[in-house]
């Protein structure tokens, strides 16, 4: 019997897809490989409009600032007009805005503006998009929501990233609460917690972090995409409210120095 793709017949909306070497685009590519029937990709950056040419005719691209409730409603309405429904939502946008650098600051130096911005792009955006998408999932009694959190925040922390840690830990708390509220409507909600990932924006030091994980490398973006795809599929029908950490075993090792000094 011919194998059907894991997402055959499903319509998905994925946020944060403008960078073709990022997790969002890699996830979109996995979704296409798994025969997703319709795909709406969203980003704040116009570069997102390059996606349909690479992902296929059933992909539509949309721009929105996902920290704005009005923008979010408009873009969800656009996606629904184009595809008729949204079965799968992947809240991936966050961390940095396309073309800008990440804003690192020690806790004691954080301004209120930096705090509000970090919470807005990493946590509020996921709340707003989910709130706009969930009603039509409830009406149809089906939905899969996958929120991209991080190992950073819910599990571990890095210096100068306390806002990011707070927001990504908040994503997990929000996911658990959401999972309970929508469980009676055929909807699951889960979070993924990537560790070091070799995206285009990975800095040199982060690469070293990846090399010192038990698997001795950073993740490829498509490896995160495959986990997201699994949680978005009916293979994961009895999993909800969970954080699935995908970090090459990094957070389970007690000794984190160079291996030649220990083994
Ligand atoms: N790269 C890693 O090592 C890593 C590790 C753990 C978690 N993550 C998470 O994975 C997700 C994707 O990260 P990535 O490394 O692929 O980064 P990326 O920069 O390629 O993707 C993030 C995208 O989100 C978009 N975005 C940001 N703010 C937005 C807004 N207000 N409205 C609309 N779009 C907005 C950006 O323009 C960008 O295209 C993020 O949520 C990040 O926190 C990444």
Tag the structure with descriptive keywords:
263 residues; alpha/beta; Rossmann fold; seven-stranded parallel β-sheet; 7 strands; globular; binds nicotinamide-adenine-dinucleotide
Describe the protein's architecture and organization.
The chain is of the alpha/beta class and 263 residues long. The protein has one domain (11-249): Rossmann fold (3-Layer(aba) Sandwich). Helix content is 38%, strand content 14%. It contains seven helices and seven strands, in the order βαβαβαβαβαβααβ. The protein has a seven-stranded parallel sheet with strand order 3-2-1-4-5-6-7, with helices on both faces. The longest helix has 29 residues, at 112-140. It binds nicotinamide-adenine-dinucleotide (NAD). Nicotinamide-adenine-dinucleotide binds next to helix 1 and helix 4.
Principal-axes shape call:
globular
How big is the Rg? 18 Å
* Strand percentage: 5-15%
Ligands bound here?
Answer: nicotinamide-adenine-dinucleotide
Query: What CATH architecture would you give?
Result: 3-Layer(aba) Sandwich
Element order: H for helix, E for strand:
EHEHEHEHEHEHHE
Residue share in helices?
Answer: 25-40%
Largest sheet: 7 strands, parallel
Put the structure in a nutshell.
With 263 residues, the chain is α/β, with parallel strands linked by helices.
Write the layout of secondary structure elements.
Blueprint: E1 11-15, H1 23-33, E2 38-43, H2 51-55, E3 59-63, H3 69-83, E4 88-91, H4 112-140, E5 143-148, H5 162-182, E6 187-194, H6 204-211, H7 221-232, E7 243-246
Parallel strand pairs: 1-2, 1-4, 2-3, 4-5, 5-6, 6-7
Helix pairs in contact: 1-7, 3-4, 4-5
This protein binds nicotinamide-adenine-dinucleotide (NAD).
